[in-house]
Write a structure and sequence with these properties.
Layout lengths: L2 H6 L6 H10 L7 E2 L6 E7 L5 E5 L2 E5 L1 H7 L1 H9 L6 E3 L2 E5 L4 H11 L16 H13 L3 H12 L6 H6 L12 H11 L5 H9 L9 E2 L4 E3 L3 H26 L10 H17 L13 H11 L3 H26 L18 E3 L1
Parallel strand pairs: 1-5, 2-4, 3-6
Antiparallel strand pairs: 3-4, 5-6, 7-8, 8-9
Helix pairs in contact: 2-4, 3-4, 5-6, 6-7, 6-9, 9-10, 10-11, 11-14, 12-13, 13-14
Amino acid sequence: MSPDRQETRPLKRSRTQAAQDDLSGSQPSSKMETTLGDFERSEEFWLEDGSIILVAQQTGFRVYRALLARQSTVFSNMFSSSTPNAEEMVEGCPVVYMSESAEEVAHLLHVLLPTSQRTLFSRNFSFSFEQISAIIRLAHKYDIQDVLDQAIASLAHFFTSDFDTWERNKKQVVDVTLAQSICIVNLARLVDWPSLLPVALYQCALLGSTVLGGYKHDNASVEHLHPDDLRRVIRGRNRLAKEANEMVAEIFISDPCARCTTRASCRDALRRMLEIAVADDGCSSPEVLRSWDCGIENWGEEEGLCDACQRAAVERDTTARRHVWNKLPDIIFGLGVDGQVADIEANDVISETA
């Protein structure tokens, strides 16, 4: 990014300070005893022996103050620095108002309670995208590092920086739609995890013009890409289409392999398979990481391509896709070396309410 932008951007608060300001800024200025009429109890997280009440969107969560403090440096610092005069009391418990939605707070508490043997990323992993998205944002904001690491790992299973891992992991741990990849880009910016970006931007590029509409969350808010990332996606889609043309040529415009014993017929078969691939719009589709192996097998059998030449074509397909994969960060999306881009702050992402 140009130096001008870096000079004019205001200094960014640390995530710990930002979270503390967010919490303390919403607390009353004087101590007062209120009633439960000011908010509704959470049906799931209202512990009768709880020692603190978190309130989000008129929903109260009564939990253990010490438990939160042990797991989050933000909560720990806030609790240790607060004074009785700055606390509202309900049934003898101090109340902290949070800016997040009640659903987001509940998603985080599902992970924090209980603390023993907490394993977010496991074989029985069943979190939805909305849940994992909220967990990542809140774990980052409130500095709960072990939860953040596990939540990111659940996404990195699919949004990987390694081609061989991508090839093996056809099924996502957390189901993420193409449109939700917009949120993955923004989450990667938020937590400074650039290895998620190449695949996430690639998925966004497959959206075509619908990427402009953003992603509509369950709560009706709409999340968009930062304008700089949107430009990367639009330019990247055009570059991917160009790569697709070169890939098809590399796979199908080839002489029969050295092990071929029917060179004339296999040469004709490869030519006809090229014609099929072109007719199938394969030369212009930005979906360059999709393997041609099924087409090679099916068309090869139909056109009489020998087994050796089929295997050679599959190898060329893998080589071509690996080559494009290696170009995704820098050449396709302009992210820089190893996808390390720090010129877009997570707070710059665009959000609106429908």
